[in-house]
Design brief:
mainly beta, 4% helix
Length: 328
C-alpha cells in the first residue's frame, strides 16, 4: 500500500556540493553544484518507485545511452545568447581557447533550506558570469519540491536581475528550462540526424536500437511526437514506460513568464525544453524576441515539472493540473 502522506526532507552535504531531496528516505533528486560543472543542476531525478528519468551520461553513464550534447545534464535553466555569450552549450568539452565565448553559472549562496510534511523548499542565489569572472546577472531561485502519493513535483521560480549594465537575451533557440531524459523515454529512433547549435557546431545523433524505447510527447495545443517542436503551448507531457512502470514527465509554463505561451524545444532524442525567449528559429522567422533588461531591472520565470508514476493521464487531467499550477 503506497504512502499517501510522504515525508519530504532536504539534506545539505557541503563537502559533496549538493542538497539531496528525500521522500520517505529515498532519493527524489539532488541539487548539485560541483566546480566541474558550468551550471548547477538537479540530478538525478527519480520517480516514486526509484526509477531514474534523467540520462546518466556524462556524470553516471548507463549502458545503451547516447553520449551527445555533454551540456545536457539533469534539469537545468540557462540560455544560448546572453550579451553574446553562450551559457547553454558550455561544458567540459569546450576547448580552453574557445571558453571566452561562453558563460557559466555559479552558486553564490544557499539562502534557506526548509521542509514540512510532504513539501520542501530550497532558496539559492546564483551568478551568471563571463569567463573573466564578471557577473552579468544575479539569479535568485526558489525550488519547491513536493510529493503526493506516487506523484513528485518540482516548481522553479527564478528572478534574473541585470547587475552590471544592460543585459540582452538575443533570440536563440537554445533555452531555457530543460531536461535530458533517460534512453527509454526518448522517441524511437528512425533515422540518423544532425543538429546544429547557434554557433554552427554540428552534433551527429545516430540511429539506435529501439527495444524498450517508448517516449511520446503530447502538447496542450494538440501536437504529438516530433510535431511538438517549435510550437507554443501551456504544457507538454512526455509519457512512456521504463520496464513495467508507466511514467509521465510534464513541464508547465506560466502566464506570468515573458514570452508566454512558451515555444517548446522538445526533441525525440531526449532533450525536453521550454524556451519562451527563443522565437525566431521556432517560428521560422515569423516572430522574434530580443529581450533586454536595463541595469537593475529584473524578470521572473516560473516553471513546474511533474514526475508521475504508475498511471496514464488524459489531456483533460493535465489541463486541470495546469490550471491549479497557474492559479498559485
Amino acid at each position: 500500500m503506497k504512502n499517501q502522506s510522504p515525508k519530504l526532507e532536504l539534506i545539505q552535504n557541503e563537502s559533496a556540493q549538493k542538497v539531496d531531496v528525500l521522500v520517505d528516505g529515498e532519493l527524489f533528486t539532488s541539487f548539485i553544484y560541483p566546480d566541474t560543472l558550468d551550471k548547477p543542476v538537479l540530478f538525478p531525478i527519480n520517480t516514486s518507485q526509484g526509477t531514474t528519468v534523467t540520462r546518466g551520461w556524462p556524470l553516471t553513464p548507463r549502458p545503451g545511452e547516447r553520449f551527445d550534447h555533454p551540456h545536457h545534464i539533469g534539469l537545468w535553466f540557462n540560455y544560448g545568447d546572453v550579451n553574446g555569450l553562450d551559457f547553454w552549450n558550455n561544458s567540459y568539452a569546450i576547448p580552453a581557447d574557445k571558453k571566452s565565448n561562453y558563460g557559466h553559472i555559479v552558486l553564490s549562496s544557499i539562502n534557506s533550506i526548509s521542509s514540512s510534511g510532504s513539501t520542501g523548499q530550497l532558496e539559492v542565489t546564483q551568478e551568471w558570469k563571463n569567463e573573466s569572472g564578471e557577473t552579468l546577472l544575479e539569479e535568485k531561485t526558489t525550488f519547491i519540491f513536493s510529493a503526493d502519493g506516487s506523484d513528485r513535483s518540482i516548481a522553479r521560480i527564478s528572478t534574473l536581475t541585470a547587475v552590471n549594465g544592460p543585459v540582452t537575451f538575443t533570440d536563440n533557440k537554445e533555452g531555457m528550462i530543460a531536461l535530458r531524459v533517460s534512453r527509454e523515454l526518448e522517441h524511437p529512433s528512425t533515422k540518423p540526424e544532425l543538429f546544429t547549435d547557434a554557433s554552427g557546431k554540428i552534433t551527429d545523433v545516430p540511429t539506435m536500437n529501439n527495444e524498450g524505447i517508448t517516449g511520446m510527447y503530447t502538447s496542450s495545443n494538440g501536437s504529438k511526437g516530433d510535431d511538438v517542436w517549435g510550437t507554443r503551448g501551456d504544457w507538454v507531457e512526455l509519457a512512456g514506460e521504463i520496464g513495467e512502470e508507466s511514467i509521465s514527465v510534464i513541464i508547465y509554463d506560466h502566464p506570468g513568464n515573458v514570452g508566454y505561451p512558451t515555444y517548446w524545444h522538445a526533441r525525440g532524442y531526449g532533450l525536453f525544453a521550454a524556451n519562451p525567449l527563443g522565437q525566431k528559429a521556432m517560428s521560422e522567422g515569423k516572430e522574434e524576441l530580443n529581450y533586454k533588461l536595463e541595469n537593475g531591472e529584473s524578470m521572473t520565470f516560473r516553471f513546474k515539472v511533474d514526475v508521475i508514476s504508475g498511471k496514464k493521464l488524459s489531456p483533460t487531467e493535465i489541463n486541470q493540473m495546469y490550471e491549479s499550477w497557474k492559479s498559485n
